[in-house]
TrEMBL record:
<comment type="similarity">
    <text>Belongs to the aldo/keto reductase family.</text>
</comment>
<dbReference type="InterPro" id="IPR044500">
    <property type="entry name" value="AKR5G"/>
</dbReference>
<dbReference type="InterPro" id="IPR023210">
    <property type="entry name" value="NADP_OxRdtase_dom"/>
</dbReference>
<feature type="binding site">
    <location>
        <position position="115"/>
    </location>
    <ligand>
        <name>substrate</name>
    </ligand>
</feature>
<dbReference type="InterPro" id="IPR036812">
    <property type="entry name" value="NAD(P)_OxRdtase_dom_sf"/>
</dbReference>
<protein>
    <submittedName>
        <fullName>Aldo/keto reductase</fullName>
    </submittedName>
</protein>
<feature type="active site" description="Proton donor">
    <location>
        <position position="53"/>
    </location>
</feature>
<keyword id="KW-0560">Oxidoreductase</keyword>
<dbReference type="Pfam" id="PF00248">
    <property type="entry name" value="Aldo_ket_red"/>
</dbReference>
<dbReference type="InterPro" id="IPR018170">
    <property type="entry name" value="Aldo/ket_reductase_CS"/>
</dbReference>
<dbReference type="GO" id="GO:0016491">
    <property type="term" value="F:oxidoreductase activity"/>
</dbReference>
<feature type="site" description="Lowers pKa of active site Tyr">
    <location>
        <position position="82"/>
    </location>
</feature>
<dbReference type="InterPro" id="IPR020471">
    <property type="entry name" value="AKR"/>
</dbReference>
<feature type="domain" description="NADP-dependent oxidoreductase">
    <location>
        <begin position="19"/>
        <end position="265"/>
    </location>
</feature>
């Protein structure tokens, strides 16, 4: 974890940056384009979007601007998108992948995920992802919001195990059991909403730890993610915050501070429950 280009090697050998930019709830438009461009300019190499966000077109424009301004190659970037629930069938998922590529203006994705484990539909979608992967059209495949029982059910029939499980993960939702299960099966855990939608920024215990290191609460949480071997994608559209979120490679949390942050867990979600959603 030396710098913003530090990577984690997935079980298929593909290298994924430890830290990236998330764009959930960022509307398509100039602010989004600028945020992606700014992130790339400041050393970010991983950008995470999804079909349901409705902003793949803007993300693609930001990527092209970032490549042009930063004088880097497409191959230097790691781009993720996700198939939405209404497209979770074999043919539908293949078509959804094509649609995402078209909107992003890219020839391939580095990572493609099933966004939610819709009962009775995600296995067919996984077969489609396996096809895309075997054809060399996507570098890595994975899932999002899958609990242990979803992963077990998927892997019963899967030819290829997921490389990533992207889940809600923050100090109020540490998901230890799930994390251990993923580790045992070489599935890399990735955090969405690492800052708990901003709700943790005024937590007194985290503020105390932050003041000890001369860092912000956001930086402490991102660092906690990385030291737990969890890839993370904090969201921001503000240049200074994008820079600050990545300024986490010049310090290390002690074991005691890591444990103290772990103890903040309350199994509390700000997003939907993967076992009880209706969309």
């Amino acid at each position: 974890m030396e710098n913003l280009q530090s990577i984690k090697t997935l079980h298929n050998g593909v290298e994924m940056p430890l830290l990236g930019l998330g764009v959930f709830r960022v509307e398509d438009g100039q602010e989004l384009i600028d945020a992606v461009k700014i992130a790339i300019k400041n050393g970010y190499r991983s950008i995470d979007t999804a079909a349901i966000y409705g902003n793949e077109v803007g993300v693609g424009k930001g990527i092209r601007k970032g490549i042009e301004d930063g004088n880097i190659a497409r191959e230097d970037l790691f781009i993720t998108s996700k198939v939405w629930n209404s497209e979770l069938g074999y043919e539908e998922t293949i078509a959804a992948y094509e649609d995402s590529l078209t909107k992003l203006g890219l020839e391939y994705l580095d990572l493609y995920l099933i966004h939610w484990p819709v009962e009775g539909k995600y296995k067919a979608a996984w077969k489609a992802l396996e096809t895309l992967y075997k054809e060399g059209r996507v570098k890595a495949i994975g899932v999002s919001n899958f609990q242990i029982h979803h992963l077990e059910e998927l892997m019963k029939d899967a030819e290829i195990n997921p490389m990533i499980n992207q889940v809600e993960y923050h100090p109020r939702l540490t998901q230890k059991e799930l994390h251990n299960f993923c580790r045992e099966h070489q599935i890399q855990l990735e955090a969405w909403s690492p800052l708990m939608a901003g709700q943790l920024l005024d937590n007194e215990e985290l503020q105390e730890i932050a003041s000890k290191y001369g860092k912000s609460v956001a930086q402490i949480i991102v660092r906690w993610d990385l030291q737990n071997n969890v890839i993370t994608i904090p969201k921001s559209t503000k240049e200074q915050r994008i820079i600050d979120n990545a300024n986490v490679f010049d310090f290390k949390l002690t074991k005691e501070d890591m444990k103290q942050i772990d103890l903040l867990n309350k199994n509390h979600r700000v997003g939907p429950d993967p076992d009880n959603f209706d969309f």
